[in-house]
Every structure is written in C-alpha cells, then in structure tokens.
Hints:
Layout: H1 5-21, E1 32-36, H2 40-52, E2 56-60, H3 63-73, E3 77-81, H4 89-103, E4 110-115, H5 122-128, E5 132-135, H6 140-159
Parallel strand pairs: 1-2, 1-3, 3-4, 4-5
Amino acid sequence: MVISNQDNRNKTKMATQLVRLYPAPGTQVGRGVVLAWADDRERTRLTRVLERHRFEVCPLRSGERAVELIESRGWPIAVLDSDLPDVSGLQVTQLLRYLWYLAGETANVNLIVASSPANYSKRECYAAGATDWLRKPLQADRLIPVLEYHLVIASKGTSE
C-alpha cells in the first residue's frame, strides 16, 4: 500500500469540513494534547500554537513521561517526536499499543508520530500502531486540522 500526499490533503480537507459542521466548544475539555518533543524551542512554539487553538497542552521532553501521562490521565491525543532523547515516539507508540493489548483494552488515544522520512517512514509508523503520521518540521496549518479531525472522529465514536 502506497500512502501519498493526496491522503494528507484529503484528510485535511475532511477535517476542515467536519470542524465547520461541528465547531469545537469554547472550553478545553476533551481537547488535551500530550506533546512529547525533543527540541525545546520547537516544543515551545508548538505549545503556543496549540494553546491559541484552545487545546490544553502538556509539553514534555521524555517519552517515558509521555507513557505515564497517557496511561494515567487518558489524554485524547499524543503528538510524539521521533527524536526524543530517551525513547523515540515510535517506541512509545509500540509500547502503549502492547500494554493495551496485554490488558485487553482498546484505548481511545490518538497517537500521532512526527518524523522525517529519513528516520521513520509513514508505513513504519502505521505498522507500529500510530493513528497518524506527520512530516517534520511540523507546520501549524497541517497540525491543527489533523488534531481537529481526530477529535471530531473520537467524539462521534464516543457519543454513539
């Protein structure tokens, strides 16, 4: 299966349409994002962008800490850098999926791995259990629609 840029464009277009149909409420409830990112400046920039779009952000530098927070608090989305210093975002994804498998659970957490194709391909990330893959460097105009898309889909799944 070949995954193209057209898939990302379709996903962005769909997210934009869904957000127009189902606008997010003014509160931050259910809009939490664990942001595990290696570079301090980039993590700060992404945190500011997400907060401007009414996301509650938990910025981290550690993959191990991300696993703890996702497990304990149940954040709906985690954006994981592939270059974390302790454990890569891909390894975090694999670990969480394995833990949930052992526990017989299906988690309602969207695990989004951001990497350059030189580190991990989109196919590798999906095979590890990632919900989505984003190309680094992350741009706000690509990140926000992807997050909105996953929030809308998750909220539709829990309300039925």
